[in-house]
Amino acid sequence: xxxxxxxxxDLDAEEEELQFGSFTNDDAWELGSALVSAxxxxxxxxxxxxxxxxxxxxxxxxxxxxxxxxxxxxxKTRVVNRFGHSSxxxxxxxxxxxxxxxxxxxxxxxxxxxxxxxFPVLVRSVxxxxxxxxxxxxxxxxxxxxVGALRAFMARHGE
Length: 159
Fold this sequence. Notes:
This protein is α+β, with helices and mostly antiparallel strands. It has one domain (8-156): 2-Layer Sandwich (Beta-Lactamase), CATH 3.30.450. It contains six helices and five strands, in the order H-E-H-E-E-H-H-H-E-E-H. The protein has a five-stranded mixed β-sheet with strand order 1-4-5-2-3. Strand 4 (118-123) and strand 5 (127-135) form a beta hairpin. It is globular.
């Protein structure tokens, strides 16, 4: 088990910070396009998905992404939808309890992956409405790519 540079408190603070006033299909397109641009700038071999209410609004697979990335996206998304926190947050919660997600819950690893890269789309006064996911880099880098794009999006929109 690799140590995370994030504490659970850090991840809680990110989720509190990164909340939208609203989230539309156009927002998903803009955010997804920004993620694609960021990934292209570093030649990151990633797949990106953004969903709202379990409906895929954006998907892109960049050069170097593999079919496995789609599976990782599905498994990380299930974690966010089930637990209401980023996939890295869920992972770190178990690490800080001295166990692992897999050991503690026994969920089918073919269906659930508590690995960084999936972040809830949170709307203030509403809660989680969707998920934004990156897969293809080491899990901390997947997480950072998503968080960086969310911060940049919110700065552009004054949120």
